[in-house]
Amino acid sequence: MSLAELQSIGLDELVEKAALQTRIDRKYVLSRFEAAQVLAALDPSTRVLEIAGARASSYESVYFDTPDLLSYRLAATARRRRFKIRTRSYVDTAEAWLEVKTRGSRSSTVKDRVAYDIVHRDILTAGGREYTDAALDGLGLNGAELDLRPTLVTRYHRTTLFLPASASRATIDTDLSWEADDGHRLSTPDLAIIETKSGVRTSEIDRLLWSHGHRPTTISKFGTGLAALRSDLPSHKWARVLRRYFR
Question: Is residue 233 packed enough to be buried (19+ CB in 10 Å), middle (13-18) or exposed (0-12)?
Fold first, then answer.
């Protein structure tokens, strides 16, 4: 069954039925051909998020880092205290958010976001800096001393699924591309990233992916993308997926 044949679900209903306050996220990297094989076997009760008649949305994220790539290096070396700062734009609806993701001393991940003017998505305004600096200060870093600049832009199309049996969600990202601040670009038109977001119960799509021989992998659109564009950067954390899908 194709995604076009599945029933739709609205955003409000999706949030109500799959809020997932506590969740486990798993990411899978597949070719688009492999992804199509898996998705063709979805349970007919699966529903597809539809907004204004569209079942796929255009996303753009701008990641901010220091000139020496402090955010990247903390992530690449799996440091306990690390951060990620980005604007995420929903291009079709002209909405944007400024997001700060931090990991504290107990390995807990905290993600906060605030509405942002999409016109300023590629800069940190005075209000944006105030917001990010406060989050970084809470991590033990002096945010005001960090020279944060736009470092990487990612663009992709996202389709979101609702899985009724487990009340969980999954996203499918395709048409991925990256652009670094030095102008280098990368696109992977034959790649798909499926991310499942489930509670204590494993989701139906996880089990479906496993039955097709696919296992979760470590990938970060920011970290892996920048590593693929910059061979001089430490990338052991993403080495396997880089070798298989980006080289």
Answer: middle
Delineate the domains of the chain, giving CATH numbers in brackets.
Answer: 3-246 (3.20.100.30)
Model pLDDT for residues 156-202, shown as the tens digit of each residue: 999 999 998 888 899 999 999 999 999 999 999 999 999 998 776 78
At residue 168, φ and ψ (nearest 5 deg) are -120, 175
Count of helices and strands (H, E) across the chain: 7, 11
In the chain, the DSSP E strands lie at 7-9, 24-31, 47-49, 57-65, 82-90, 95-103, 109-116, 149-163, 168-180, 185-188, 191-198
Q: Which two tokens stand for residue 95?
A: 């909405």
Q: How far apart are CA 10 and CA 14, in angstroms?
A: 6
The answer to whether the predicted template modeling score (pTM) of the entire model surpasses 0.70 is yes
Tokens of 187: 């696109």
- Return the sign of the alpha-carbon dihedral for residues 90, 91, 93, 99: positive
| 103 neighbors 81 (Cβ within 8 angstroms) | yes
Chain centroid to CA 161: how far? Answer: 15
Distance CA(118)–CA(128), nearest Å, equals 12
- Which residue bears the tokens 């061979």? 231
